[in-house]
Amino acid sequence: MILKSKICGVSDSKTLNYLVNHNYPPQFVGFIVNYPKSNRYVDKKKLKELLKINKKKSLYVAVLVNPDQNILGEIKDLPFDYYQLYNCDPNKIQFIKKKYNKKIITALTIEKAEDVKEHKLFKDITDIYLFDSKGYEKSIPFNHSLIENIKFNKEVMLAGNIQINDNLENFKKIADIIDISGGLETSGLKDISKIEIFLNKIKNLNNEA
Fold first, then answer.
1. Residue 190 main-chain phi, psi, to 5 deg
2. Beta bridge partners of 6
3. What gap in Å lies between CA 45 and CA 18, rounded to an integer?
4. Rounded to 10 degrees, what is the CA torsion of 199, 165, 64, 130?
Protein backbone atom coordinates (compact mmCIF):
# COMPACT_ATOMS: atom_id res chain seq x y z
CA MET A 1 0.00 0.00 0.00
CA ILE A 2 1.27 3.45 -0.92
CA LEU A 3 1.38 5.94 1.94
CA LYS A 4 0.07 9.27 0.66
CA SER A 5 0.95 12.65 2.14
CA LYS A 6 -0.77 15.93 2.86
CA ILE A 7 1.19 19.06 3.70
CA CYS A 8 -1.10 21.47 5.50
CA GLY A 9 -0.99 25.11 6.48
CA VAL A 10 0.71 26.36 3.32
CA SER A 11 0.51 30.14 3.23
CA ASP A 12 3.19 31.44 0.84
CA SER A 13 3.92 31.09 -2.87
CA LYS A 14 7.54 29.97 -2.43
CA THR A 15 6.49 26.90 -0.45
CA LEU A 16 3.56 26.12 -2.72
CA ASN A 17 5.66 26.35 -5.88
CA TYR A 18 8.24 24.07 -4.29
CA LEU A 19 5.59 21.47 -3.41
CA VAL A 20 3.76 21.28 -6.74
CA ASN A 21 7.00 21.22 -8.74
CA HIS A 22 8.68 18.57 -6.59
CA ASN A 23 9.63 15.27 -8.22
CA TYR A 24 7.57 13.54 -5.54
CA PRO A 25 4.88 16.07 -4.62
CA PRO A 26 2.37 15.55 -1.80
CA GLN A 27 -0.98 14.20 -2.93
CA PHE A 28 -2.75 16.89 -0.92
CA VAL A 29 -1.91 20.52 -0.06
CA GLY A 30 -3.98 22.19 2.66
CA PHE A 31 -4.82 25.87 3.23
CA ILE A 32 -6.31 27.30 6.45
CA VAL A 33 -9.27 29.25 5.08
CA ASN A 34 -11.41 30.48 7.99
CA TYR A 35 -9.52 29.99 11.25
CA PRO A 36 -7.63 33.22 12.05
CA LYS A 37 -6.36 31.81 15.38
CA SER A 38 -3.87 29.78 13.36
CA ASN A 39 -0.66 31.51 12.29
CA ARG A 40 -1.07 29.53 9.06
CA TYR A 41 -4.37 31.26 8.24
CA VAL A 42 -4.58 32.78 4.75
CA ASP A 43 -6.96 35.68 4.12
CA LYS A 44 -9.22 35.60 1.08
CA LYS A 45 -7.23 38.04 -1.07
CA LYS A 46 -3.96 36.22 -0.54
CA LEU A 47 -5.66 32.85 -0.95
CA LYS A 48 -6.98 33.77 -4.40
CA GLU A 49 -3.47 34.74 -5.50
CA LEU A 50 -1.93 31.57 -4.06
CA LEU A 51 -4.42 29.32 -5.78
CA LYS A 52 -3.47 30.70 -9.19
CA ILE A 53 -0.42 28.46 -8.88
CA ASN A 54 -0.99 25.33 -10.95
CA LYS A 55 -1.59 22.40 -8.60
CA LYS A 56 -0.24 19.92 -11.18
CA LYS A 57 -0.36 16.46 -9.56
CA SER A 58 -1.48 17.62 -6.12
CA LEU A 59 -5.01 18.19 -4.83
CA TYR A 60 -5.93 21.44 -3.04
CA VAL A 61 -7.75 21.21 0.29
CA ALA A 62 -9.70 24.02 2.01
CA VAL A 63 -9.45 23.57 5.79
CA LEU A 64 -12.67 24.92 7.30
CA VAL A 65 -13.88 25.08 10.90
CA ASN A 66 -17.69 25.05 10.99
CA PRO A 67 -17.91 27.35 7.93
CA ASP A 68 -20.86 29.68 7.44
CA GLN A 69 -22.59 30.45 4.15
CA ASN A 70 -20.55 33.63 3.67
CA ILE A 71 -17.16 31.92 3.55
CA LEU A 72 -18.53 29.01 1.52
CA GLY A 73 -19.90 31.47 -1.02
CA GLU A 74 -16.60 33.35 -1.19
CA ILE A 75 -14.52 30.26 -1.96
CA LYS A 76 -16.96 28.27 -4.10
CA ASP A 77 -15.19 29.15 -7.37
CA LEU A 78 -11.66 28.57 -6.10
CA PRO A 79 -9.89 25.42 -7.37
CA PHE A 80 -10.31 23.30 -4.25
CA ASP A 81 -10.71 19.56 -4.71
CA TYR A 82 -11.62 18.81 -1.09
CA TYR A 83 -13.18 20.61 1.86
CA GLN A 84 -11.71 19.46 5.19
CA LEU A 85 -14.41 20.13 7.75
CA TYR A 86 -14.07 20.49 11.52
CA ASN A 87 -16.97 20.85 13.98
CA CYS A 88 -19.70 20.04 11.46
CA ASP A 89 -22.56 17.63 12.04
CA PRO A 90 -23.51 15.07 9.36
CA ASN A 91 -26.44 17.12 8.06
CA LYS A 92 -24.28 20.18 7.50
CA ILE A 93 -21.59 18.15 5.74
CA GLN A 94 -24.21 16.52 3.52
CA PHE A 95 -25.56 19.96 2.61
CA ILE A 96 -22.09 21.38 1.83
CA LYS A 97 -21.08 18.34 -0.21
CA LYS A 98 -24.20 18.48 -2.34
CA LYS A 99 -24.40 22.25 -2.80
CA TYR A 100 -20.74 22.85 -3.62
CA ASN A 101 -19.96 19.50 -5.26
CA LYS A 102 -16.73 18.94 -3.33
CA LYS A 103 -15.15 15.83 -1.90
CA ILE A 104 -15.12 15.84 1.88
CA ILE A 105 -12.46 15.14 4.50
CA THR A 106 -14.29 14.83 7.82
CA ALA A 107 -11.99 15.87 10.65
CA LEU A 108 -12.54 14.13 13.97
CA THR A 109 -10.58 15.40 16.97
CA ILE A 110 -9.54 12.61 19.29
CA GLU A 111 -8.78 12.48 22.98
CA LYS A 112 -10.27 9.14 24.04
CA ALA A 113 -11.68 5.97 22.48
CA GLU A 114 -15.26 7.31 22.58
CA ASP A 115 -14.26 10.12 20.20
CA VAL A 116 -13.20 7.61 17.54
CA LYS A 117 -16.66 6.01 17.45
CA GLU A 118 -18.11 9.21 16.01
CA HIS A 119 -16.68 8.28 12.62
CA LYS A 120 -19.72 6.02 12.13
CA LEU A 121 -21.97 9.08 11.90
CA PHE A 122 -20.18 10.14 8.72
CA LYS A 123 -19.66 6.78 6.99
CA ASP A 124 -22.11 7.53 4.16
CA ILE A 125 -21.08 11.12 3.43
CA THR A 126 -17.35 11.52 3.93
CA ASP A 127 -14.71 10.62 1.35
CA ILE A 128 -11.81 10.55 3.81
CA TYR A 129 -11.70 10.35 7.60
CA LEU A 130 -9.13 12.60 9.28
CA PHE A 131 -8.17 11.75 12.86
CA ASP A 132 -6.53 14.74 14.53
CA SER A 133 -5.77 15.90 18.05
CA LYS A 134 -7.87 18.35 20.05
CA GLY A 135 -5.19 20.98 19.56
CA TYR A 136 -6.14 22.35 16.13
CA GLU A 137 -3.42 24.93 15.44
CA LYS A 138 -1.26 23.85 18.39
CA SER A 139 0.09 20.63 16.82
CA ILE A 140 -0.38 18.40 19.85
CA PRO A 141 -0.41 14.59 19.63
CA PHE A 142 -3.06 12.01 20.38
CA ASN A 143 -2.73 8.29 21.00
CA HIS A 144 -2.71 6.83 17.48
CA SER A 145 -3.27 3.33 18.85
CA LEU A 146 -6.91 4.35 19.47
CA ILE A 147 -7.62 3.83 15.75
CA GLU A 148 -5.18 1.00 15.14
CA ASN A 149 -7.51 -1.98 15.07
CA ILE A 150 -10.63 -0.40 13.59
CA LYS A 151 -11.84 -1.34 10.12
CA PHE A 152 -12.84 1.80 8.20
CA ASN A 153 -14.87 1.95 5.01
CA LYS A 154 -12.97 4.98 3.65
CA GLU A 155 -9.39 6.15 3.46
CA VAL A 156 -7.89 7.30 6.77
CA MET A 157 -5.81 10.45 7.13
CA LEU A 158 -3.73 10.85 10.28
CA ALA A 159 -2.62 14.14 11.90
CA GLY A 160 -1.58 15.29 15.35
CA ASN A 161 1.97 16.56 15.84
CA ILE A 162 3.63 14.26 13.29
CA GLN A 163 7.34 15.02 12.96
CA ILE A 164 9.84 14.33 10.17
CA ASN A 165 11.93 12.21 12.54
CA ASP A 166 9.01 9.90 13.32
CA ASN A 167 9.08 6.35 11.98
CA LEU A 168 6.65 6.72 9.09
CA GLU A 169 6.51 2.93 8.72
CA ASN A 170 4.44 2.86 11.92
CA PHE A 171 1.87 5.25 10.45
CA LYS A 172 1.55 3.12 7.34
CA LYS A 173 0.05 0.36 9.46
CA ILE A 174 -2.90 2.49 10.56
CA ALA A 175 -3.43 5.19 7.92
CA ASP A 176 -3.52 5.78 4.17
CA ILE A 177 -2.47 9.42 4.33
CA ILE A 178 -0.11 11.34 6.63
CA ASP A 179 -1.11 14.95 7.34
CA ILE A 180 1.82 17.07 8.52
CA SER A 181 2.07 20.79 9.22
CA GLY A 182 3.97 22.02 12.27
CA GLY A 183 6.53 19.24 11.84
CA LEU A 184 7.72 20.96 8.65
CA GLU A 185 8.19 24.37 10.23
CA THR A 186 10.98 26.33 11.84
CA SER A 187 9.96 29.29 14.01
CA GLY A 188 6.40 29.00 12.73
CA LEU A 189 7.26 29.08 9.03
CA LYS A 190 7.39 26.25 6.52
CA ASP A 191 11.00 25.08 6.14
CA ILE A 192 11.95 23.88 2.65
CA SER A 193 14.75 21.69 4.01
CA LYS A 194 12.33 19.84 6.31
CA ILE A 195 9.83 19.48 3.48
CA GLU A 196 12.53 17.93 1.32
CA ILE A 197 13.42 15.42 4.05
CA PHE A 198 9.78 14.48 4.55
CA LEU A 199 8.92 14.02 0.87
CA ASN A 200 12.03 11.92 0.32
CA LYS A 201 11.17 9.75 3.34
CA ILE A 202 7.69 9.15 1.90
CA LYS A 203 9.21 8.35 -1.50
CA ASN A 204 11.73 5.91 -0.05
CA LEU A 205 9.12 4.24 2.12
CA ASN A 206 6.83 3.68 -0.84
CA ASN A 207 9.68 2.42 -3.03
CA GLU A 208 10.37 -0.26 -0.44
CA ALA A 209 6.79 -1.50 -0.57
1. -60, 135
2. 28, 179
3. 21
4. 90
CA angle 125, 138, 47 (to 5 degrees): 65
**Is the overall model pTM greater than 0.90, yes or no?**
yes
Domains of the chain: 4-208 (3.20.20.70)
What DSSP line would sit under 65-115, residue for residue? ES--HHHHHHHTTS--SEEEEES--HHHHHHHHHHHT-EEEEEEE-SSHHH
Residue-by-residue pLDDT tens, the chain, 209 positions: 799 999 999 999 999 999 999 999 999 999 999 999 999 999 999 999 999 999 999 999 999 999 999 999 999 999 999 999 999 999 999 999 999 999 999 999 998 888 999 999 999 999 999 999 876 555 567 888 889 888 899 999 999 889 999 999 889 889 999 999 999 999 999 999 999 999 999 999 999 75
- ∠ CA 40-42-47, nearest 5°, is 140
The residues near 81 (Cβ < 8 Å, ≥ 6 apart) are 55, 59, 60, 61, 102, 103
